[in-house]
From TrEMBL, chain A:
Lineage: superkingdom: Bacteria
Organism whose genome encodes this protein: Nitratireductor aestuarii
InterPro entries in the cross-refs: Gluconate_2DH_su3, TAT_signal
UniProt xrefs under Pfam families: Gluconate_2-dh3
Lineage of the species this protein comes from: Bacteria, Pseudomonadati, Pseudomonadota, Alphaproteobacteria, Hyphomicrobiales
UniProt protein name: Gluconate 2-dehydrogenase
UniProtKB/TrEMBL annotation, chain B:
One example GO MF annotation: heme binding
InterPro entries the UniProt entry points to: Cyt_c-like_dom (IPR009056), Cyt_c-like_dom_sf (IPR036909), Cyt_C_IC (IPR008168), Cytochrome_c-type_DH (IPR051459), Membr-bd_ADH_cyt_c (IPR014353)
Record: residues binding heme c 2: 184, 187-188
Binding site for heme c 3: 303, 306-307
Protein name: Alcohol dehydrogenase
Organism of this sequence: Nitratireductor aestuarii
Domain Cytochrome c per the UniProt entry, residue ranges: 24-127, 169-277, 290-380
Stored PROSITE patterns: CYTC
UniProtKB/TrEMBL annotation, chain C:
Keywords recorded for this protein, A-Z: FAD, Flavoprotein, Oxidoreductase
GO terms, molecular function: flavin adenine dinucleotide binding; oxidoreductase activity, acting on CH-OH group of donors
Chain ranges of the Glucose-methanol-choline oxidoreductase N-terminal domain: 232-341
PANTHER family: LONG-CHAIN-ALCOHOL OXIDASE
Protein's recorded name: GMC family oxidoreductase
Domain of life (superkingdom): Bacteria
Length: 244, 401, 586
């Protein structure tokens, strides 16, 4: 990370400050004729608020433990924890996503559903996390004597496998729905743009070799099966954008 | 388009004047009005053409263009042809007061009487709109119109265009249009402290409303040195050519004015501009290597999707940066501003697509914008001097208003 | 109380691909046209420029540009014995919303259906005998030859890049030899192929197949269309399918039509206004206009002489149901037609993993690929195979966006160190061969209104009852076998087959190629609209979109959707306006 002058925190805050001035007007009915509307300096900016928080301390440590098992730190390099996935999930749950604002959340909610019918929990994502973490920790304390975060790694893996396979019942919440959502969000947090708080230092992209938020590969189309080595770039840049 | 719609629909009853003047006289006037781009200043975009009210920001304050439809109370309804000619020729209003030279009478004075009369007849044929204009917002002593007498004495010589008999008719026609109605110097010539053209800088580029207008001299060392006559014509007609695309003020000029010119007139303009030599440019300062490196990284990650990694752009679609007059302009205002706010290529009849560049002000810091601007100004044969982060910061502030 | 607005000649419901084409055609005829779109205004430099476009979380996973589920979704079940539940978020398909509709975020794979696809029922009957029990496939009522000039117009509008395989009956080297005869070459050359396509082309050629470049609405070079609209060259950014194009290089409403259309004084567009239903007069045989509501909740009645539904297949079908036009299909009795013959697409694939070669699929485009068409439609003999139809097999390199694209070999767990290692090793070294399977109509796959769930205005959601049919499953298995042969020859270390066998799952993304529900046909007893897409019941109502397909072919639909739109527009211009009334006598 030579030359990376901004601290991550400063980097994120500066995102927030500069973006607020530029938001395009929200939903309102318009009548358009005569000319394609355009205004200088307007951009429909990413809904990134990496510092928003939803979790309690206990919830955070549970999720932090889960994501660290889903994408562990190991010989292939940094995992979800270093990538800031917990921060990512926390901020997502605090925003419109956590509230299920763009999901259809009207009842009735069925007790039984088909595997082909997708998410059918009564709780929007944030509440599902909250209820499931509480039930999971309760379950772990009861059966193994401590909350999930304090279990041994192999115990944690065991529990996660059972959640995934749907053979662990949690009180008042679908364990499988919870597992699927955490896995989905963990992968999102590991590979999404760093402006959302995860994929810190672009570790997820570096792991797989994804060059990030670029928009032109014409110069590389004739790679003919050879590697194309490009440093990853986020929407707010990479270290090389700042003069040394 | 709104203008077109209005003409078609004719929302107000056909005014008397229109019935009095012959069709060809009105048509001649319509064309003359297009050559003078009257609509540009005398219309708030989206409102009825020529109904005035648009504010022109000058270094001295804001001047509002009046309603020039023939409404009796708020427009030109009571003006006679003589009074109108006096305004165009001498910059004197109906009541005898002096007009601010933001109204380009120093150029319109070059128009012959019959041409001005045609303008009058055309304006008189338009639907009348009742609309007051806001008071000008000028500090003393400029709002004291008496000072204008002095200004005129210093900087203004009334007089119709006199052709140069040693030149072709085409050259003379071009000179008339450029120096007369089209008033190119309004933007493309640097102004002195009093807001008058610096004669030695004629058409060598200017800066107004936080835009740098490039040199449009077409001879050796001029801003259009590399443009052929045909390319000048193409640009004024369609807003794009192999070198660049028009946006902002020039976009409006093309949209409302030059795209409506006859082919012969555009050609005449080109012939005239190509004949204007300029001075050799100073060598640019060297840019710092680390700034260039950062600029290159920013360029390759952001700009290449349209402007291509070698700056060649896609002629007539996405402006080439290599060799671009705007990029090479000694004054980097336009480059920096376009990066900050984005820009839209003017939609014209030839090129209806309003291809636009997005804003980068939220994405790049002053230092980064300075770096990428410095990089494009120093690459692919370009010769613009480095841009500093402070310059970017000042413009960023200025644009916040 | 709805406020009554001034009359217009034509009201278009929605403003996506079909509406924009019609608006351009009908304003040319001098009609005043109003398009009412329920989503937002959106345009390239402000809403999806390169500064914000490459953002996987926002556009795909948070679905910012797709129909807002919170307000209106679809309930789903696999069969009639089950209870349908709402798709609480989109999965398998992604209906568009906002100006441009799905044209903003489509891939741009732009096909013509085969001549035999338009006569699927009669052609297959003639060749193979009676169709199986329960299969409700029928002819379109329009032929390929009739549509040819309209395909051609759409391809020129969009600047499709490709290679003709059949020019006026002459088979051309390098193109698709099975396609119907075309009157001219594609307006642009094919896309620039990459390593994976070269491997696919080699493998298929070795197998005696005829690989050809996929027809692409991503520009292979700068293009100015016949309207004068300009499209830039594609930069293979890899954020194409499901994303807006930042540099004007994907054909969309915004890039191909809007700049010209918007300048016309007889065109107006309203955004954030949702059409609730079509208003009918007392006789219920004439549309008087539409009822719509803006986001602030104000209701309006918009009178019009001609109403055209352009709201996408799912919404068009539902609007017919909510407006009470025609009878809703009931599979128990076989009565009713609205909602009948809902079809989809059956996709399977084979991933190829290379040992030391890099596919670098992040450098890709929505319609960058090589294709073989030997196993599509009736391009091969189906005798004894137990199914009809087929699909193209292609190697598309559309992207490698890591949240969505996780090419890991057979047997890799879905998390943990092994998953992570597999991702690290294979992400840049994999490609995929896909089969784009057709979907045949059956009596038990259909759409109707849900008895329980309501939209934001308290009106019933549409209910989808759908499962893969025995025909489709057999066909997909056959295609997958062919695909396996190809994939195995592409030079990889190993392959992984992704079959599509179990029940249809409404969540994993397949395609947004929903068809049927407002099907076209030869008479009012077998179809909702006639061959000109005109409602049999209400002749001043037309219905666009893939809803009119009686069944779906083994291609992406939009080329055919657009050709049918131009065809209907031509009929309106040349026939309907002269004497408004039914264009086909019942
Ligand atoms: C991710 C994706 C990839 C695709 N890729 C391809 C491809 O490669 N090739 C291909 O052939 N096809 C592809 N398609 C399909 C293609 O986009 C559609 O076939 C095409 O856009 C359909 O045009 P349409 O006019 O019927 O609907 P749309 O273009 O979707 O437009 C419908 C519009 O109607 C509006 N609307 C809906 N209901 C109402 C209402 N009640 N009131 C007002 N407005 C309403 C919607 O908001 C929308 O804007 C793809 C689709 C998606 C989503
Ligand atoms: S792949 Fe090409 S057409 Fe598609 S979004 Fe990117 S640049 Fe546009």
């Amino acid at each position: 990370m030579a030359g990376w002058k901004l601290s991550r925190r400063g980097f994120l805050t500066s995102t927030l400050i500069t973006t607020t001035a530029l938001l395009v007007p929200g939903a309102f009915a318009r009548t358009i004729s005569g000319e394609v509307p355009w205004l200088p300096g307007r951009a429909n900016l990413p809904p990134a608020y990496p510092d928003l928080r939803f979790f309690t301390t206990a919830e955070r440590s549970c999720i932090d433990a889960i994501i660290a098992r889903l994408i562990p730190t190991d010989e292939t390099g940094a995992g979800a924890r270093e990538a800031g996935v917990t921060d990512f999930i926390d901020s997502q749950l605090a925003g419109f996503y956590g509230k299920g604002e763009r999901w259809y959340m009207q009842g009735p909610f069925a007790d039984e559903k088909l595997d082909t019918q997708g998410y059918q929990s009564e709780q929007p994502p944030a509440q599902l996390y909250r209820d499931a973490i509480e039930a999971l920790d309760a379950h772990c304390e009861q059966t193994l004597g401590s909350v999930f975060a304090r279990l041994e790694e192999n115990q944690q893996d065991e529990i996660l496998k059972r959640l995934e396979e749907g053979d662990l019942e949690l009180d008042g919440v679908s364990a499988k729905a919870f597992f699927d959502l955490v896995l989905e969000n963990t992968i999102e947090g590991f590979f999404s743009d760093p402006i959302y708080g995860g994929n810190r230092d672009m570790v997820g992209w570096k792991l797989v070799g994804f060059p990030g938020a670029r928009y032109d590969y014409r110069d590389y189309l004739d790679h003919n099966g050879e590697p194309v080595i490009l440093e990853p770039v986020g929407l707010k840049g990479r270290p090389a954008w700042t003069p040394a | 388009m709104t203008a077109f719609a209005m003409l078609l629909l004719g929302s107000a009853p056909a005014p008397l004047a229109a019935q009095e003047s012959s069709f060809s006289q009105v048509e001649r006037g319509r064309y003359a009005v297009a050559t003078g781009n009257c609509q540009g200043c005398h219309t708030i975009p989206g409102e009825v053409p020529f109904s005035g009210g648009r504010g022109l920001e000058t270094p001295f304050g804001t001047i509002y263009a009046p309603n020039i439809t023939f409404d009796e109370d708020t427009g030109l309804g009571l003006w006679s042809k003589d009074e109108f000619y006096r305004a165009m020729h001498e910059g004197i209003a109906r009541d005898g007061s002096r007009l601010y030279p933001a109204f380009p009478y120093p150029h319109f004075t070059k128009m012959p009487r019959d041409e001005v009369d045609a303008v009058y007849d055309y304006l008189a044929s338009l639907p009348r709109v009742r609309k007051e204009k806001p008071e000008n917002d000028l500090p003393v002593p400029l709002n004291w119109r008496f000072a204008l007498r002095f200004w005129n004495w210093m900087f203004f010589e009334p007089g119709e265009f006199q052709p140069d008999p040693t030149r072709s008719a085409e050259w003379n026609r071009g000179a008339y249009l450029v120096e007369g109605p089209a008033h190119c110097a309004g933007c493309h010539t640097e102004k002195n402290l009093a807001g008058a053209d610096k004669e030695a800088q004629h058409l060598k580029g200017g800066n107004l409303e936080n835009w740098a207008a490039p040199s449009i001299r077409g001879g050796t060392h001029g801003g259009l040195e590399k443009w052929s006559e045909d390319e000048i014509v193409e640009y004024l007609r369609g807003g794009r050519n192999a070198h660049t695309a028009a946006f902002s003020t020039m976009a409006e000029v093309i949209e409302l004015s030059t795209q409506h010119f006859t082919e012969a007139d555009l050609k005449a303009i080109a012939v005239y501009l190509k004949d204007l030599e300029s001075d050799e440019r100073e060598e640019p300062e060297e840019a710092d290597a680390s700034v260039l490196a950062a600029g290159e990284a920013i360029y390759l990650d952001n700009c290449n999707a349209c402007h291509v990694s070698d700056g060649s752009g896609v002629p007539r679609f996405f402006a080439p940066l290599a060799g671009s007059g705007k990029v090479n302009d000694p004054d980097p205002t336009t480059v920096v501003r376009v990066i900050l706010q984005g820009a839209r290529s003017v939609p014209t009849k030839v090129h209806p697509s309003p291809l636009s560049m997005p804003a980068y002000d939220w994405k790049l810091t002053d230092e980064q914008i300075a770096a990428v601007a410095t990089y494009v100004r120093a690459s692919w044969g370009n010769r613009g001097s480095p841009v500093t982060a402070d310059e970017v910061g000042e413009l960023r502030e200025a644009l916040k208003e | 109380m709805a406020r009554k607005l001034p009359h217009v000649d034509v009201v278009l419901v929605g403003f996506g691909w079909t509406a924009a084409i019609l608006a351009q055609e009908l304003t040319d005829e001098g009609l005043t046209v109003l398009a009412i779109e329920r989503g937002a205004w959106r345009d390239t430099p402000t809403d999806f420029p390169p500064t914000v476009a490459p953002d996987e979380l926002r556009w795909y996973w948070r679905k910012e540009m797709f129909q807002n589920n919170a307000r209106d979704t679809i309930t789903f079940r696999n069969n009639r014995s089950q209870t349908a539940l709402p798709m609480r978020r989109w999965g398998s398909f992604l209906p568009g919303e906002g100006v441009g509709g799905a044209s903003v975020h489509w891939n741009g794979q732009t096909w013509r259906f085969l001549p035999s696809d338009f006569i699927a029922a009669s052609h297959n009957r003639e060749r193979y005998g009676e169709l199986p029990e329960g299969m409700t496939v029928q002819d379109f009522g329009v032929t390929y030859a009739e549509l040819e000039p309209h395909f051609d117009r759409f391809e020129k509008l969009c600047g499709i890049g490709g290679k003709a395989g059949n020019l006026n009956g002459q088979i051309q080297d390098g193109g698709n030899p099975f396609e119907g005869p075309r009157s001219s070459e594609y307006p642009n050359p094919p896309m620039h192929m990459t390593f994976a396509q070269h491997q696919f082309a080699k493998a298929t050629a070795e197998l005696g197949l005829k690989p050809f470049p996929g027809p692409s609405a991503n520009m292979s070079r700068p293009y100015t269309n016949p309207l004068g609209c300009q499209l830039g060259p594609c930069s293979y950014c890899g954020f194409c399918e499901k994303y807006g194009c930042g540099n004007y290089s994907k054909a969309s409403v915004q890039t191909t039509i809007l700049p010209v259309l918007i300048q016309k004084p007889n065109f107006t567009l309203k955004t954030h206004n949702e059409v609730l239903h079509v208003n009918l007069d007392k006789s219920r045989t004439r549309a008087t206009g539409v009822r719509h509501v803006d986001v602030q909740g104000n209701e309006y009645d918009q009178p019009a002489d001609l109403v055209i539904l352009c709201a996408y297949q799912t919404n068009n079908t539902r609007l017919m149901m909510l407006s009470g036009i025609g009878e809703i299909y009931n599979p128990a009795t076989g009565q009713g037609l609205v909602g009948k013959n809902y079809c989809y697409q059956i996709m399977s694939s084979a991933d190829v993993f290379f040992e030391d070669k890099y596919t670098n699929e992040f450098a890709g485009a929505g319609a960058l690929g090589m294709v073989v068409d030997e196993y599509n439609g009736d391009n091969f003999d189906h005798s004894g195979l137990g199914f009809i139809g087929g699909g193209y097999i292609a190697n598309w390199t559309t992207n490698a966006r890591p949240i969505e694209s996780q090419p890991v070999p057979e047997g890799t767990p879905s998390w943990g160190s092994a998953w992570k290692k597999a991702m690290a090793e294979n992400f840049l070294k994999a490609t995929s061969v896909g089969a784009h399977g057709a979907s045949m109509a059956y009596a038990n796959n259909y759409l109707d209104l849900d008895p329980t769930y309501k939209d934001a205005y308290g009106r019933p959601l549409m209910r989808m009852t759908y499962d893969f049919t025995p025909n489709d499953v057999a066909m997909s298995a056959f295609l997958t076998e062919r695909m396996k042969e190809i994939a195995e020859r592409m030079g990889g270390r190993e392959i992984k087959l992704n079959l599509r066998d179990g029940p249809y799952d409404s969540m994993p993304y397949q395609t947004t190629h929903n068809t049927g529900g407002t099907i076209m046909g030869t008479n009012p007893s077998n179809s909702v609209v006639n061959r000109y897409l005109q409602s049999w019941d209400v002749p001043n109502l037309f219905v666009m979109g893939a809803g009119v397909f009686p069944q779906n072919a083994g291609y992406n639909p939009t080329g055919t959707v657009a050709a049918l739109t131009y065809w209907a527009a031509a009929a309106i211009r040349s026939q309907y306006l002269r004497s408004p009334g039914p264009l086909v006598q019942a």
